[in-house]
Write a structure and sequence with these properties.
The complex is a heterodimer of chains A (201) and B (431). With 201 residues, chain A is of the alpha+beta class. In chain A, the strands form two sheets. In chain A, strands 4-1-6 form a three-stranded mixed beta sheet. Chain A has a three-stranded antiparallel beta sheet with strand order 2-3-5. The longest helix of chain A has 19 residues. Chain B is built from 16 helices and two strands. In chain B, a hairpin with a 2-residue loop joins strand 1 and strand 2. The longest helix of chain B has 35 residues. At the A-B interface, helix 1 of A face helix 2 and helix 14 of B.
Chain lengths: 201, 431
């Protein structure tokens, strides 16, 4: 029969080992008595050190443009605005000229205003899934706090625009899929129209 | 003549008094002497308390794989000041229907005894603020005042959680005082004195923790002390998960800080009295000072996060002290501080290890285990004193007999305390 009360000492020993593991000299001591141990500290001191997050980590959407900010992929179709569950997207557009005809830049219509409210967005990525033009993607920047309640929290078009290069940098594997899809679409558009069906003989 | 490091505070005080004696009439001198002691204690107590909170948070964090406070000052060293400032500027809420006067008096009444306890502790050789001949009795009497304060505060709050907490606290404090007091009865029998200075002097050759009755008595005194100051694992009175905050639920701001101060000072005093009574007080092995001086200067010298001029000054000062006082033994006040903080570490260690006891387990431990053990311990101490003839090498007959008695008593009380096996019931309809 084990001595009554020895369980108490065993428990205290476990705690003391955990305590020593958090200090470099403690780990040296533990190694000297033959106990292997890793660094016990699990705290990441956030503003100084940032946690490594997975590539698919997402936080907030942004608008993708190719080469120049005028060349944005969004055509102001408003599908994302309709589909957004918490309704945090607000789009005015597509831009029209004085006669009421839609204006085009680089062969596409474009939004006049495109706002997303950080305080409402729930990071669900539905806007990315529904976008037929791959114009909106999820960013992994999570430091969006602001000291100003209204204009600091609502991100306007200028703030949302980010180059496709940035997307390729933060999410390489997702971007390669998107790029392949866009290239296929472009190739299809550029290819000469398929031969008209043979006239009925 | 080179200054004795051991007596540096004593001679510093004497020098200050001598300087004041040149300008002040001799009638005032005793009063000035008393005032100086009071000022030192009044300054020391809050500082001790503030840094105890930091020590506890840091150590507990390390036991839970965390870092603890690191943001305010280097290594979080200014965290207690930030906490104090926060407490001072917080709103002081008094519940409607509460008794405002008693509500205000209770935390004060909790802090004052805790500070009064400092008066009799011998912090070093010739360094007891007051050498009372009934120091031990004074300590026990003053430390038990806190139960009144707790009940006053809880009752004045007019709220159910504090009252439940305070009822638990009072029951617990009264229960644990009995084995606590009985464990020092053995001490009084052996030393023949109740003066804490005398008790420390009696441990010149052998710390009492090294005797069988001293070991048991020390453990009982420490455990009942922890229970009396309501610390984990005996923190039933302020069990956060069931009572919100226990007796201090309705307190905020500086009054709440005073409750905390009382609690931490009493915890410190539990460690101090255990060190004084059983761990040899300010006695320590005669190790030359340069070991401690070098160790401390290495610690400060390698503290890389510290502002480098402060680091350099501290390290150089310590090295200087090492050179000047190197051959003297480590001072008595350093031993006392070292041992007390080692026990503080044990307190935090216990808190980091054990979950809270149930009420019946708490009361069972006090009345069914610690109390009979303390009674047997009194007998064992008597046997130890009576038979001092060495029989087996350096071991005396008393040592052997009392060890056997205590081990047998431990085994018997453990067996008696085993929970009764529940009778197996069968429920016809349920089966």
């Amino acid at each position: 029969m084990a001595l009554v009360g020895s369980g108490v000492l065993v428990g205290m020993g476990v705690v003391f080992k955990t305590f020593l593991e958090t200090y470099p000299w403690g780990r040296v001591l533990l190694r000297m008595v033959g106990i292997q141990s890793a660094n016990g500290i699990t705290t990441i001191e956030y503003p100084d050190v940032k946690q490594q997050h997975a590539e698919r980590f997402r936080y907030f959407p942004f608008l993708v443009y190719d080469q120049t900010p005028e060349n944005l992929r969004c055509v102001a179709c408003k599908i994302c605005e309709q589909e957004c569950p918490p309704a945090c997207i607000h789009i005015v557009g597509p831009a029209k000229d004085a006669q009421g005809r839609p204006m085009k830049a680089n062969g596409r219509t474009f939004p006049v205003e495109f706002d997303i409210d950080t305080s409402i967005c729930m990071s669900c990525r539905i806007c990315v899934d529904v976008c037929p033009f791959d114009a909106i993607e999820m960013d992994n920047d999570y430091e969006l706090s602001s000291t100003e309640r209204l204009h600091g929290m609502v991100h306007d078009k200028q703030r949302l625009l980010k180059p496709a290069e940035y997307f390729r940098k933060i999410k390489p594997s997702e971007a390669s899929v998107v790029d392949a899809r866009l290239d296929a679409k472009k190739a299809k558009a550029a290819a000469p129209p398929a031969a008209p069906p043979a006239p009925a003989a | 003549m080179i200054l004795s490091l051991d007596q540096v505070f004593v001679s510093g005080r004497a020098a200050l008094l001598q300087m004041a004696g040149r300008v002040l009439p001799p009638v005032l001198m005793p009063w000035l002497s008393i005032l100086m002691t009071i000022v030192v204690i009044a300054a020391l107590a809050p500082a001790v308390m503030m840094y105890l909170t930091l020590i506890e948070r840091k150590l507990l964090a390390r036991m839970q794989n965390r870092l603890g406070p690191t943001r305010v000052g280097v290594y979080g060293l200014l965290q207690p000041l930030a906490d104090g400032l926060k407490m001072l500027i917080k709103e002081d809420l008094v519940p409607r229907g509460a008794d405002p006067l008693v509500h205000l008096l209770a935390p004060i009444m909790a802090v004052v005894p805790a500070i009064l306890l400092f008066a009799v502790i011998p912090f070093g050789r010739n360094m007891a603020p007051a050498n009372l001949n009934v120091g031990l009795l004074y300590f026990l009497a003053v430390s038990s005042v806190s139960s009144y304060a707790i009940f006053m505060g809880a009752w004045a709050s007019r709220s159910k959680f504090p009252v439940i907490g305070a009822m638990r606290a009072v029951a617990q404090i009264i229960s644990y005082e009995v084995p606590g007091v009985l464990s020092v009865v053995a001490l009084m029998m052996v030393t023949g004195t109740m003066s804490l200075v005398g008790i420390v002097e009696a441990q010149r050759d052998q710390w009492f923790i090294a005797t069988p009755w001293g070991f048991v008595g020390g453990v009982i005194l420490f455990l009942s002390g922890i229970a009396e100051v309501n610390r984990t694992p005996f923190d039933m009175p302020e069990a956060e998960s069931e009572l919100v905050g226990g007796f201090h639920t309705e307190y905020s701001g500086m009054k709440f800080a005073l409750w905390y101060m009382a609690e931490f000072l009493e915890a410190f005093m539990v460690c101090a009295i255990t060190v004084t009574c059983f761990l040899g007080g300010w006695h320590g092995p005669a190790i030359p000072f340069w070991t401690l001086g070098l160790l401390l200067s290495v610690i400060f010298g390698t503290a890389t996060r510290m502002w480098w001029p402060a680091r350099a000054v501290l390290t150089l000062a310590l090295l200087g002290a090492t050179v000047v006082f190197g051959t003297q033994p480590i001072p008595s006040w350093a031993w006392f501080t070292l041992k007390t903080y080692a026990l503080v570490f044990v307190l935090v260690w216990l808190r980091g290890t054990f979950p809270r006891l149930r009420v019946d387990q708490l009361m069972g431990l006090a009345w069914k285990f610690l109390l009979p053990m303390a009674l047997v311990n009194v007998l064992a101490a008597g046997v130890w004193v009576l038979y001092r003839r060495p029989v087996l090498g350096p071991l005396t007959a008393g040592t052997l007999a009392s060890t056997v008695m205590l081990v047998a008593a431990y085994a018997i009380f453990v067996r008696l305390n085993r929970p009764a096996p529940l009778e197996r019931r069968t429920y016809l309809l349920a089966d």
